[in-house]
Amino acid sequence: MTSTDAAVPDTIGVGLISVGWMGRLHSRAYRALPDHFPELGVHPRLVVAADPIEAARDQAVTRLGYERAVADYHEVLADPAVDVVSICSPNFLHREMAVAAAEAGKPFWIEKPMGRYASDSREIHEAVQRAGVITSVGFNYRHAPAIERARELVRSGRLGRITNVRGSLLADYSSDPAAPLTWRFERERAGSGVLGDLLSHGLDLAQYVVGRIASVSALAETFIQERPKPAAGIVDRSAAATGVLGRVENEDYAALLFRFEDGAVGTMDSSRVMRGPHAEYTLEIYGTKGSVRWDFQRLNELEVYLDGQEVDGYATHYVAAGDGEFARFQPGAGTAMGYDDLKTIEAAQFIASVRRGEQLAPSVADGLAAASIVEAAEASLADGAWHDVARVDGPLTYAAATPVL
Predict the structure, then answer these.
(1) Pairing state between β 315-318 and 68-70
(2) Which residues form the GFO/IDH/MocA-like oxidoreductase domain (predicted)?
(3) Which distant-in-sequence residues (6+ apart) come within 8 Å of 315 by Cβ?
(4) Burial of 279: CB neighbours in 10 Å, binned 0-12, 13-18, 19+
(5) CATH architecture of 11-140
């Protein structure tokens, strides 16, 4: 970091690892910080991006605005001008890159699932604890203003004692059986299927709004058991495939029963092969005095029922100033925020955490907490029994006060 005042840096050097869709999104989020979060006093400098694909490196410079691009991510970690790093690579590279970033003393923002398995996530968490670096994990749905309002209603007691939670994360991104067998369908490179890819988001939301999930029972199924193998070197699911079939090694669908530490119960299911839903990610919280319901496809609305309200049934609350960080993006209720805005909030929490030396953003401990639920679910799939979720030490921000930036 550089500044005329060493205590208040105004330029922060950004390094990016992997220039795919998410890498581009991280880059846009950094660039948006001076506009939406001017009080951070930060002017991101996009220093260097790493990607083994030449076309991606060219894009990093010509489209995203990085000063240079390299093939080897180690060059990003070794660059003294890089203050923070975004890790947007495929799952099977996360552990290696995150551990290397921690050992290099670089604060990093990593996408989820943090590792292929809970063991990967534990190694990352342990490396971060040893190094003492600030981190952020891409649990972007937390930052929806409607979710922040729901959390406030729950934590303030307005819904009474929470009795049960329902969640569902239904998508169609793998519903075409002719789509190629990319790394996402391989245990060695992806780990679990929809459990880590989608359900980890829902489980983090449930813990962020309600509290710790203590035990779980699960079922899962793979509905499309074979897919055509992709051409050599192809990793994108939209790419053309060969006619040779290969076996899908992880689950298309999963459903969980779980118990919260405070006694509430919950259900959550997820699919990547649904016909109809595109990104139908829902969370419903029921209490003794009311309930709330949210659907990502209606990002800026929260259905609210409270005992004693004038009209019986659900009322639609349109998020507005006072709900999360909404006022930074739109002037009033009814004008919608979007997905990219949630990542900008995530970037702001990460950079604020780095500048203050305080973990405000979702941490690798939060990432391990979600992975630990997935681990317990996979144990349940193996033996059909309920399994306790391993406890996680560290800065669990899902249990902390809502960050003030």
Answers:
(1) unpaired
(2) 148-293
(3) 303, 304, 305, 309
(4) middle
(5) 3-Layer(aba) Sandwich (3.40)
CATH architecture of 144-399: 2-Layer Sandwich (3.30)
Q: How far apart are CA 262 and CA 139, in angstroms?
A: 23
How far, in Å, CA of 86 to CA of 290, rounded? 40
Alpha helices in 156-299 (DSSP H): 187-190, 194, 200-209
Please tell me whether residue 403 adopts helix, strand or coil conformation.
Answer: coil
* Beta carbons within 8 Å of 44's beta carbon, 6+ residues apart: 11, 12, 14, 30, 31, 33, 34, 351
Please name the residues in contact with 5: beta carbons below 8 A apart, sequence gap of 6 or more: none
- Domain residue limits, the chain: 11-140, 144-399
pLDDT in tens, 235-277: 555 555 667 999 999 999 999 999 999 999 999 999 999 999 9
Please name which of 178, 176, 23 lies closest in space to residue 85, comparing C-alpha atoms.
23
Task: For the beta carbon of residue 61, count every other beta carbon within 10 angstroms.
Answer: 16
